[in-house]
Every structure is written in C-alpha cells, then in structure tokens.
Amino acid sequence: MKLIRTEDAVGHVLCHDMTQIIKDKYKDARFRKGHVVTEEDIPVLLSMGKEHLYVWEMTPGMVHENDAAERLLTLCGQENMLRSEVKEGKIELKAACDGVFLVDSQRLIAVNSQDEVMIATRRGGTAVRAGDKLAGMRVIPLIIAGEKLHRFFSPFLIIASATHAHKYLTSAFGSFVYVPIITATRQRNCS
After folding, report:
1. What's phi and psi for 46, nearest 5 deg?
2. pTM of the predicted model as reported, rounded to 2 decimal places
3. Which residue of 25, 59, 109, 124 is 20 to 30 Å from 148, comparing CA positions?
C-alpha cells in the first residue's frame, strides 16, 4: 500500500472505500475498495477533498479480486445459469430455468481448501426453479497470487439437459468423463 497524489492515481486500485457526503442528499461510498481509478474519477475525488489516495502496489503475478472472481467463474459450467456482475470480488449464479442442480463435491472441497478463495453452492442433486440462487464465488483479499487460481481448470457446476443428467447419474461410477464442477439439468420446456 502506498500514498500517491490523486492526479497520479489513474489505473491504480483503491485500498479502501471513499465516502461522498452531499448534505441532505447523499451519503454513501462513492468509490469502493478495489475500484480501479479512471480519468473521470479524478475530478470527483478532488471535489470530495481527496488530494492523496492509498492505493495497492500491483506486483507481477498478482491478480485483482474482480479478475480473480472471473477466473473462479470459469470453473462453473454456466450452461442454463445466469451470472451476476462481478462486485468486490464476488459473482453469484442463478438458475436460468427449472432443472436439477449437480455439484462435483470433491472438486468443490478442493477449491475451498485453498486460502483466499471460496465457492459456496446449494446442495447438489436437488431440483431448482428458474431464478433460484445456485452458487456464489468470492476472492477474499483485494489482490491474490495468480498461481493460486491456476490449480483448477475444468468447470464443476452444471445445470444440464435431462439427458445429460441421466448420463451423469447412471455413469457416475463407470467410464463417464465429467467436465464441470456445477451443473443443472433443465426441463424440456426450457429454451
């Protein structure tokens, strides 16, 4: 963490929230911890009285929490799922249609055994309705070593077609090759 002039902060990552107060109108965090400062932010920050900012010193091999959350998302199948926008290192997944939600628990535990990252899911093998929350993934620190994110490569969360779910469930102990950590099987009427 280092202190720099606000005018020199473009492209840097803020270390903490910046609250803006406009009497009788607004009081909230105008900029959140982890925000990457843009040219357009400079006049706003200066108008808030922020002549200097504490920013993270990004070193090679380190990844911002939002980029790291996107990498965690790639572990999830995402077929028949809707994702939220990344915010503060967090992404959520919801069911895009009715179906069955499947989780490769061993791989999920392997991910969650790592420091500084986590994926929380609802119980696998359960029926879900369109709009149900399925999973949330989060990178805990503002920046994380990229090497921690390269240990897992194939997806493990899925909402799949009924045919795919049947193949998965009946072949779980055979030679079936499973791809994602999370899946959700969809009903026929789901487009």
Report:
1. -65, -40
2. 0.66
3. 124
